[in-house]
Amino acid sequence: MNSHLDPRSPIGVFDSGVGGLTVVRALMERLPFESIHYFGDTARVPYGVKSVQTIAHYTTQIAEFLLEKRVKVLIIACNTMAAVASQVVRDLSPTPVLDVIEAGALTALAATQSRRIGVIGTPTTINSNAYSRAIHAIEPDARIFSQACALFVPLVEEGWLDHPVTRLTAQEYLKPVLAEQVDTLVLGCTHYPLLKPLLQEAAGPAITLVDSAEAMAEQTAALLTDLNLHNPERTPPDYHYWVTDVPLRFQTIGERFLGRGLNNVHVVAW
Ligand code: DGL
Fold first, then answer.
1. Cα separation of 211 and 25, whole Å?
2. For the chain, where are the alpha helices, taking DSSP H only?
3. CATH number of the domain within which 167 lies
4. Active-site residue, from 78, 82, 144, 199
5. Do 202 and 231 lie in a common domain?
6. Mapped to the 3 state alphabet, what secondary structure does 179-244 carry?
7. Which site among 114, 169, 182, 262 is 20 to 30 Å from 142 CA-CA?
8. Does the annotation count 78 as an active-site position?
9. 184-188 and 208-211: which strand pairing?
10. Per-residue pLDDT tens for 65-86?
11. Which of 99, 140, 216, 124 minimizes the C-alpha distance to 132?
């Protein structure tokens, strides 16, 4: 099935908005010769509070769009989409599909010693139980303690990465999870890697934070190796960004997520 895939083709990455750029950033660092097409559904974000049917419908549209760009791998960078619609994407995609939940689950299990794992994410991700299912599929004896953190996405988008309000919010959200003596905490949302220093402080130094963006980049590199799909070219890669709303806010916030300038932003008129 994969023999027709071209190693020179780009990697497709998608998210409900700007947050998936944390995955793009990790990919750029880990795989500097791979071109990337990123899709952020900025007109319809946030997904984390929408129904499963709506998310599945949007996810299908985005996956089909990127497949038309002939991507060699599709990466679901959004935890919410991965939680409720990853099977939809796998069913329609002729190319391999990776998602952040699988990557996060594997990394959490590699990190934990007590097998008591905390998971934080959007309400839809947490209500779906997708992380528990993914972790239990590999390690049935693991104990999972999850917490929906609806306020983190707007706080990150506001740029309050080191703000007293965010610190207080984190303490409140983490209290019940920390009471369960977890030794590992999965950051189960695209936006949370930007809160890593603050969350590490709130959780304490003994707890390992699992950043699904880094885990995703590692898993992508392993997949490209397995399928012999690393780009053989050593020229600078192309990065393209597709968004559904006017790109100004995407560009401004995106540069913070990416830690570098952001060009080639195109608006998709749906
Ligand atoms: N990308 C979403 C996630 O990772 C967060 C933003 C949203 O709610 O759409 O869960």
1. 12
2. 21-30, 52-68, 79-92, 100-111, 123-128, 130-138, 152-157, 164-178, 196-203, 212-226, 248-258
3. 3.40.50.1860
4. 78
5. no
6. CCCCCEEEEECCCHHHHHHHHHHHHCCCCEEEEHHHHHHHHHHHHHHHCCCCCCCCCCCCEEEEEC
7. 169
8. yes
9. parallel
10. 999 999 999 999 999 999 999 9
11. 140
Parent domain of 164: 102-212
Going from the Cα of 178 to the center of ligand 1, the distance in angstroms, rounded, reads 23
Q: Does the predicted TM-score (pTM) go above 0.85?
A: yes
Name the residue with the closest Cα to ligand 1, atom 8: 48
Q: Ligand 1 pocket, 40 CB below 6 A?
A: no
With respect to residue 6, please indicate whether it lies within any of the assigned structural domains.
no
Question: Is 189 in the active site?
Answer: yes
Residue 190 CB less than 6 A away from ligand 1: yes
pLDDT exceeds cutoff 50 at 36: yes
pLDDT score of 122: 94
Q: Is the CB of 19 under 6 A from ligand 1?
A: yes
Q: Both 114 and 242 in a single domain?
A: no
On whether residue 4 sits in a domain, the answer given is: no
Indicate if 208 and 155 belong to the same structural domain.
yes
For residue 114, give the 3-state DSSP assignment: coil
Q: Which pLDDT does position 157 carry in this prediction?
A: 87
**H or E segment to which residue 15 belongs:** strand 11-15
Q: Are residues 93 and 223 in the same domain?
A: yes
The pLDDT score that the predictor gives to residue 1 is 46
| Ligand 1 atom nearest residue 100's Cα | 4
> Token pair of 115, please?
């097998």
121 lies in the same domain as 31:
no
**Alpha-carbon radius of gyration of the chain:** 18
How many Å lie between the centroid of ligand 1 and the Cα of residue 58? 13
Q: Is residue 1 part of a domain?
A: no
Same domain, 156 and 198: yes
